[in-house]
Amino acid sequence: MKIGDLNIEVPIIQGGMGIRASMSRLASAVANQGGVGVISGTAISAEELKYEIRRAKELIVKKGGALGVNIMVAASNFAEAVKVSIDEKVDMIICGAGFSRDIFDTVKDTGVKLVPIVSSLKLAKIAEKLGADAIVVEGGNAGGHLGTDKDSWDIVEEIVKGVSIPVFGAGGVITPEDADRMMSLGVAGIQMGSRFIASEECEVSDEFKQAYINCKEGDVVQIMSSAGLPANAIKSPYVEKVRNEEELTPKDCTSCLKKCNRKFCVRDTLVKAHKGDRENGIFFAGKDAWKIDKVLKVEEIFNLFKESVLKKR
To answer: Which of 60, 113, 265, 283 could form a disulfide with 234 if both were Cys (CB 3.0 to 4.6 A apart)?
Structure first.
């Protein structure tokens, strides 16, 4: 498929998962399979982001894929991460957890494609009018921070019919059958996050990946993030504390978010989870993560999903 003048061999976007869950190793592996590999640029330094982009480019040895950076609009380093991404000439910037109008002027005429994540037809139309090259439509069944309570299955088709730019469906795509269902709604492609967490190339701990493998239906619950947005996460001792509104105010704060209620530190708990700390971490996951039963190589994941996303093209 094409996004403007950017050719993508396999219309699969690997979700940008922070903090440091999707970095150069995973992103390059996805790009080498012809998809869009995405580095999470949220809550990391400009130098680290620059290093990861350059490392990914070195590791991308096959043509047909693309390299993107996902940046939370709600993050304090949003503008800085956007600048680094443009300077380093990534193929696209994907932005969610809020909506920025300023970024459209910033990215204009740079050659970098801009792909906002939206959860409503109204915002999709605004993004298109402002100059978005494509959009990701994400439902409330996705992992991490959410923009709606409605599942992707309930919002994607309306948005596809309401805009003329390419739409990628996100939320609830775990199996090839899920991909078939999403493609049947008229999308140009899919975005998957949770499925790529359980990949060999994802740089989180084995304990984090096993949390997905051991997850049962109903184990993913919604919490209110300190970023002021609802989020989906696997049940854990810390998640239960958050849900019970226990006193978890962090002693130290790096002001990684533009706005934070400081009831707990979402940044630190994500980092702890990615390191495998079951007691003190928050394990973001899509509602259907329970469908994942094994850790696969990125190549194996693409072999499972290629037919679904290509057969209707």
So the answer is: 283
Q: How far is CA 4 from CA 18, 92, 206, 267, in A?
A: 27, 11, 38, 35
Residue type, 90: V
Angle 120-103-99 (CA atoms, 0-180°, nearest 5)?
A: 30
> Domains along the chain?
2-203+292-310 (3.20.20.70), 206-290 (no CATH)
Query: Could you give the C-alpha distances from 259 to 48, 75, 85, 271, in angstroms and in order?
Result: 23, 8, 23, 19
User: pTM higher than 0.90 for the full model?
Assistant: yes
102 by Cβ neighbours in 10 Å (0-12 / 13-18 / 19+) ranks as exposed
What is the spatial distance between Cα 3 and Cα 7, in angstroms, rounded to a whole number? Answer: 7
Each residue's pLDDT tens digit, 198-254: 999 999 999 999 999 999 999 999 998 887 888 999 999 999 999 998 888 877 777
Span 140-174, pLDDT tens digits: 999 888 888 899 999 999 999 999 999 999 999 99
d(CA 219, CA 147): 21
